[in-house]
Amino acid sequence: MIINLLIGAIIFGYAGFTLYKHVVKSRQGKCAACSLSKNCKSACSAVQGEPNMWAANKELS
Hints:
Number of strands: 0
Number of domains: 1
Strand content: under 5%
Distance between the termini: 67 Å
Protein name: FeoB-associated Cys-rich membrane protein
Structural class: mainly alpha
Number of helices: 2
Pfam families: FeoB_associated
Mean pLDDT: 74
Transmembrane segments: 6-23
Low-confidence stretches: none
Organism: Peribacillus deserti
Shape: rod-shaped
Keywords: Membrane, Transmembrane, Transmembrane helix
Helix content: 55-70%
């Protein structure tokens, strides 16, 4: 019984840790969370993201 509780606590603890780590990385942004961010030569600040659909709609009207 105690072994089952211990195994369950380990599984849920690891799942919670992984979820927390994912949320922290997603808040940092695309380039800051990248493992190659210190050695990256793509200049993330100059990379354009997806076009803003609202801005595109304003240009058409």
